[in-house]
């Protein structure tokens, strides 16, 4: 497998997640869920800024107006980067005080897909929702434990999804017109000795780049054969998510975490919690903006 060079972006997140490429701003965003921080890294200057919230931000998306859409605890909000104003859009599972959003993406039709989990990681407590222009969450999957990575194929006919503790990448038939999904098969079975599958993105060749929590890297899987075809090795154990971005969509921004590491392990892996930029030999896709009213 190829050896990749990486550039570290210091952020020292307790739980870095939610990487997102904002094309208009030519910058990457990501969050530190437990410390309530939103980071923005400008490619041109190499500078990183952060904003703090009194909530747990887990998901960064973009609306069709250029504003961010953030998943904060169990609520979705529009966030104006210029005025710093939050506009609340909706809440899911209001009766579940221990629940929060975990991962989210926008499908090719502009619908938001976003999952929940219990902060106690209660088995089967989480769900996956689809949110259209009417802002009414529709539950697509239930009995999830850690709702995580999502990706759609270029032809919009297939949806990939990860519920982390299953150690699987599930493949669903996807109806772009209705948003209906139907489980087709298990595309990839991931051995536990190389970590747990977390966040995920897809490249233009249809390969899946998956962050492995406890696996010290991002692994490139062929969902058609189930085979591992490449790996980006990183100097930290807990790798949480990744997304393509950059001028040519050929850079991965990778988030990592300090959680579940002892003090001795943090000394051994001092870059845990930082983000990493890696140039790949393939390209991803621009993220879809959410088509909200």
UniProtKB/TrEMBL annotation:
Binding site for substrate: 100, 102
Cofactor annotation remark: Binds 1 divalent metal cation per subunit.
InterPro entries to which the protein is assigned, alphabetical: 6-blade_b-propeller_TolB-like, SGL, SMP-30
Species per Swiss-Prot/TrEMBL record: Algoriphagus halophilus
Keywords (A to Z) from UniProt: Metal-binding, Zinc
Domain SMP-30/Gluconolactonase/LRE-like region positions: 15-258
Record-given protein name: Sugar lactone lactonase YvrE
A Pfam family hit: SGL
Annotated active site: 198 (proton donor/acceptor)
Residues that hold a divalent metal cation according to the record: 17, 148, 198
GO BP, one annotated term: L-ascorbic acid biosynthetic process
Cofactor(s) the protein requires to work: Zn(2+)
One annotated GO molecular function: gluconolactonase activity
Family label: Belongs to the SMP-30/CGR1 family.
């Amino acid at each position: 497998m190829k050896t990749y060079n990486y550039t570290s972006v210091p952020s020292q997140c307790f739980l870095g997640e939610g990487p997102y490429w904002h094309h208009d701003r030519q910058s990457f965003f990501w969050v530190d869920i437990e410390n309530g921080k939103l980071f923005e890294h400008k490619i041109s200057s190499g500078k990183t800024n952060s904003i703090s919230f009194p909530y747990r931000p887990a998901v960064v998306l973009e609306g069709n107006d250029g504003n961010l859409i953030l998943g904060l605890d169990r609520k979705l909000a529009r966030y104006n980067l210029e005025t710093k104003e939050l506009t609340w859009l909706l809440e899911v599972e209001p009766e579940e005080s221990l629940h929060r959003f975990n991962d989210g993406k926008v499908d090719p039709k502009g619908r938001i897909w976003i999952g929940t989990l219990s902060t106690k990681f209660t088995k089967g407590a989480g769900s996956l929702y689809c949110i259209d222009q009417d802002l009414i969450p529709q539950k697509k999957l239930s009995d999830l434990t850690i709702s995580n990575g999502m990706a759609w194929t270029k032809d919009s006919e297939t949806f990939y999804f990860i519920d982390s503790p299953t150690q699987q990448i599930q493949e669903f038939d996807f109806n772009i017109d209705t948003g209906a999904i139907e489980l087709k098969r298990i595309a990839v079975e991931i051995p536990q000795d190389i970590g747990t599958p977390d966040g995920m993105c897809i490249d233009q060749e249809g390969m899946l780049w998956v962050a492995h929590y406890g696996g010290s890297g991002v692994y490139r899987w062929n969902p058609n054969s189930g085979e591992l075809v490449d790996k980006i090795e990183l100097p930290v154990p807990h790798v949480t998510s990744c997304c393509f971005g950059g001028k040519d969509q050929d850079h991965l921004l990778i988030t990592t975490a300090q959680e579940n590491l002892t003090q001795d392990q943090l000394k051994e892996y001092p870059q845990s919690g930082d983000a990493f930029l890696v140039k790949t030999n393939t390209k991803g896709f621009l993220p879809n903006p959410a088509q909200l009213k």
